[in-house]
Amino acid sequence: MKELEDRIRREGTIKPGNVLKVDAFLNHQCDVALYDAMGRAWAEHFAGKNITKILTIEASGIGIACVAARHFGDVPVIFAKKAQSINLDGDQYVSTVYSFTKQREFPVIVSRKYLGPDDHVLLIDDFLANGKALHGLIDICEHAGATVEGIGIAIEKGFQGGGDELRSLGYDVDSLAVVDSMDPQNGTIEFRA
Fold this sequence. Notes:
With 193 residues, the chain is of the alpha/beta class. It has one domain: 3-Layer(aba) Sandwich (Rossmann fold), CATH 3.40.50. Helices cover 28% and strands 34% of the residues. The protein is built from 5 helices and 10 strands; from the N terminus they run H-E-E-H-E-H-E-E-E-E-H-E-H-E-E. The protein has helices at residues 2-11, 32-45, 60-69, 132-144, 162-168; strands at residues 13-15, 19-21, 53-57, 77-80, 92-99, 104-111, 120-128, 147-157, 173-183, 188-191. The strands form 3 sheets. It has a 6-stranded mixed sheet, with helices on both faces. The chain has a two-stranded antiparallel ribbon with strand order 1-2. Strand 3, helix 3 and strand 4 form a beta-alpha-beta unit. Helix 2 (32-45) crosses helix 3 (60-69). The radius of gyration is 16 Å and the shape is globular. InterPro entries: PRTase-like, PRTase_dom, Pur/Pyrimidine_PRTase, Xanthine_PRibTrfase.
């Protein structure tokens, strides 16, 4: 998606450890018009799929998923919580994921009352690096008996292999911008054609 790639080139910064900082428009300050264009692109890509729920992980994926849901007939958005809280009652699906940016493992939790075997799920997230977060969401869907219809990613770091692995497992991964390389020395970012 050219609009997203242009924003990354213009406003993204490369931090040590292969971290791409895009908080000016994607995951701190939110450009809702850009989110809308992303949702439209995913709706075109996944047209014909019976999407009944969108699933993401708190916090950065929530805004993107909510705006994208408008392009899928206002389907419900579920976000996996990263910590147990008194608001989570009843039976739950729990998986563990490793966060590339936070450099630690944490649980992801979804209430069983919101996800079940009749659901056809689109997974949405802001970043895909090594794929650990998505494997956690897939694990939750498998426990629920839900069908993963596809995966929508804003920015994939192609050089970290998570997207390639998920595709090799048969998942339809639609990443709107795939970064092939980042050079922190001169600040350049190369995208997959």
